[in-house]
Write the structure tokens for this entry.
Amino acid sequence: MAPIRRGRLAHHRAAPSTGERSELVARVGEVEIEQILSGTLDGPVDYLQEHDEWVVVLAGGAVLEAAGHELELEAGEWVMLPANTPHRLVRTVPGTSWLAVHVGRQSR
């Protein structure tokens, strides 16, 4: 039996002033859970990932472009991005905190 683990997510105020910082929270099989803290972006960031990703904004907000749609995300809103879906993080509110679940991701 695996041990019970617990922890605490970083407060959204711990976000960097610019760019992003991510921390692995847990890994179970082919599922990884990470917290992402976002500051002001220098410019849009493009992604094309070979794994499914589910993200939820815990605090703050962001604008994401995916599948030809601009998605304005606020705290509590989530999006499911299937593998190989090109997407772009256009901008973030400084101090945005995300929780991301990656399925089928190759270990880093």
Q: What stands out?
A: The chain has one domain: 24-100.
